[in-house]
C-alpha cells in the first residue's frame, strides 16, 4: 500500500479526466467533478509528501519488472513538492475556469484535457526513466495544444502555430538525445545512467549529448535564443489557460534540466559556462522585452522569460547553495506567475482590455482588490518579507562566493528591472486617472458580475496569494525543504539506492 | 460513392472484419496482434462501410457516438492497470492471471482487459477523427 | 548497412530542416514529419543492427541465447510513431484551420502576435 502512493497523483487525475469525458455533454457536472478532482489531488500530493519526508525517497517498479529493465517511478522530495504546488495551481485554475470558460468550450472537453495536462505534469515529475519522461512531455504538449486552440480566435490559431512548431522541434531534439544516450550506454533508466555515464571514455561525446538535451529542454523552458514562441502564444488563450501555462509548463522544462544535469550529466566547466551565459542573456532580453511591451499579459509573458534566468543561473553555479536557491525560486515562481496571469484576467474583465493605456483608477474603485493584487506583484520584485526575497538571498550569496560577477550583476539587473516594470504597471493601472472611453456592448464587465462569478474570479487569487504569504512568513519551511532537495540532488547515491531497492544506513 | 459492388461487399465485410479484429485482439498476448492493431482493423471496417453507404448509415449501425468509446476504453484499461494494486498489492500494471484455461480464449489475465481497453480507445479515436473530417469536408 | 542507414538518417534530418526553414505552412508540417522519421531511424540505428535474429525465445528453450536483436529500440520507435501520429493529425487540422481564418499560407505574414500595441 505505502509504496503505491507514489503513482496516485497520476491515477487521481486520470480517473477525473475519464469521469469528465463520460459526462462531456453536461458542463455543470463537469465543473464540480474537476474541482473535487483537484482537491483530491492536493490531499494525495500532501500524503505522498509527508511519506517521502519521513521515509526517504519512494520508488515503485511498474509491472513488477525490476529496475533497470522496467519503468521506475521515483518520488523524491523535489518531485513531490512540485506535485503539491501543481495541484494547488490546478485547483485555482479549475475554480476560475468555471466562469472564465463558456460552456461551449467545456463541451469541447476543456476540463478533461486540463486534467490530462495535470496528469502529464505529475508523471513528468515522478518518472525515473528517460524515455518515459519524453512520453509524459508529449502528453503535456498535446494537451496544451488543445487548451491553446480551444475557442479558435484568429490570434489564438496564429499563436498556436508558433507554439506547436517550436515545441514539436524541441521534442524531436529531445528524442535525438535519447537515441544517442541509448546508443552510447544501452540504458534509459536515469539511476543506472548516473553510474554508466562517468565511466564512458569518450567524454567529449557525452558533452555533446548533454548539450542536445539542453537545447531540447531549453526550448520548453524558454531560455535566451529559444524563447520566441513564448511571448507569441501565452497571451492569446483565456486567462485561466495562460495562468496554468505560465505557472507550470516552463517549469517542467526547468525541472527536467535540473534533473538531467544533476543526476545524469553532472555539469562540467564548459557546460557551466554555457549555462551561465545563457542565463545572463535570458535575464537581460526577458527584462528588456518586458520593458517595451504595453499589454499586461505580454509584460507578464516576458517576465516569465526574465525569471527563468534565475533558475538556469542557479543551476549553472552548481553548488548546493545555488541549487537550493534555484529550487526555492522555482517554488515561488510557480505560484506567483500563475497568480499574475489570473490577475491579468480579472483586469481584462474590469477594463475591457489588456492594454495598459486603457486602464487606471483601480485603487479608487476597488481598494481591497488592489491590495490583494499588490501582494504577488511585490513578491515578484522581492520586497523583503515577501516570497521573492528568500531564494534571492541564496542565489546572490552563491554567485558572490563563487566569484561569478557576471551572473551576480545580471541577478541584480533582473531585480531592478522587475521593480521598474511593476512600478510602471502600478502607475498605469492602480493610481493613474481612468481613461474615459466607450464601453463595449457585448462584453460582461466585472462590475456587472453576480456574486458567484466574482467569487469564481477572486477565490483562486486569494488561495494563491495565501500560499505566497505562507511562503513569505514561514520561509524557513521552504528553506528546509529546499536544503534537503539540494542534498538529494547533489548526492545521487540516495536516488540510486531508492531505485534499486538498496537499504540505506544513513537517512537524510 | 454509389457502387453496387462496394455497397454489397461492405455490408458483408463489416461483421467479418469486426470478427477478425476481435480474433487479432485475443491472440495478441503471445503472437503478433493486440489491441492497437485490432482496433485499427475494426475502425477500418466501419470506415469502409461509411465510404460505401454514407456516414448516416454507419452512425445508425454504431448507435452511439464513437467519442463515447474513448472514456469507456480508458476506464477499462485504467481499472485493469489498477487491479493488481487492489487485489494482490503488487505495483501498477503487474499482470494478473487466472489459473485455469478457459475454452476458446485460453488463459485470461489483466493484460487482456488492458488490451481490450486499448482496442476501444483506438476504435473511438479513429472513428472520431475520420467522422469529424468527413463531416467538415 | 549501418553506413547506409546513417547516411539516410542524415538526409532525412537535412531535408526536414530545409523544409522547416521554408515559408509555407504545409512544408513546415512536412518538415516536422520527415524529421520525426529521421529520429525513429536514428533510434533504430543506435540500438545496433542484428540481421535475422528476432528476440523470440524458441519453444524448446527458456532463455535467449547468442546474439539477438535488441527489442527495446523497436518498442521505443513504436511508441514514438504512435505519438507522432497523434501530433501530426492535430497539426494537419491546425494548419487547415489556420489557412481558413488567417487566409494565408505564408509564415512571414503571421506577425500579429508579436505586435506591440
Keyphrases for this structure?
heterotrimer, A: 508 residues, mainly alpha, 2 strands, B: 137 residues, 5 helices, 70% helix, 0% strand
Descriptive account of the structure:
The complex is a heterotrimer of chains A (508), B (137) and C (117). Chain A is mainly α and 508 residues long. Chain A has a domain at 271-436 and 445-494. Chain A contains 21 helices and 2 strands. In chain A, helix 11 (239-264) runs antiparallel to helix 14 (320-351) and helix 13 crosses helix 17 (389-402). The longest helix of chain A has 32 residues, at 154-185. Chain A is globular and about 70 Å long. Chain B is mainly α and 137 residues long. Chain B has one domain (4-136). Chain B has 5 helices and no strands. Chain B has helices at residues 4-26, 35-53, 55-62, 69-87, 110-136. By secondary structure, chain C is an all-alpha fold. Chain C has one domain: Orthogonal Bundle (Helix Hairpins), CATH 1.10.287. The longest helix of chain C is centred in the last third of the chain and has 32 residues, at 71-102. The radius of gyration of chain C is 20 Å and the shape is elongated. The A-C interface holds A 131, 135, 138, 141-142, 145-146, 149, 152, 154-155, 157-162, 164-165, 168-169, 172, 175-176, 178-180, 182-183, 188, 231-233, 235-236, 292-295, 355 and C 20, 25, 28, 32, 35-36, 39, 42-43, 45-48, 72-73, 76, 79-80, 83, 86-87, 90-91, 94-95, 97-98, 101-102, 107, 110, 112-114, 116-117.
**What is the mean pLDDT of chain C?**
86
The span between the termini of chain B is 15 Å
Unreliable stretches of chain B: none
Using the CA coordinates, give the radius of gyration of chain C. Answer: 20 Å
Give the number of DSSP strands of chain B: 0
Largest interface: A-C, 40 and 36 residues
If you compute it from the alpha carbons, what radius of gyration of chain B comes out, rounded to the nearest whole angstrom?
17 Å
Total helix count of chain C?
3
Domain module tally of chain B: 1
Order of secondary-structure elements of chain B: HHHHH
Average residue-wise pLDDT of chain B:
86
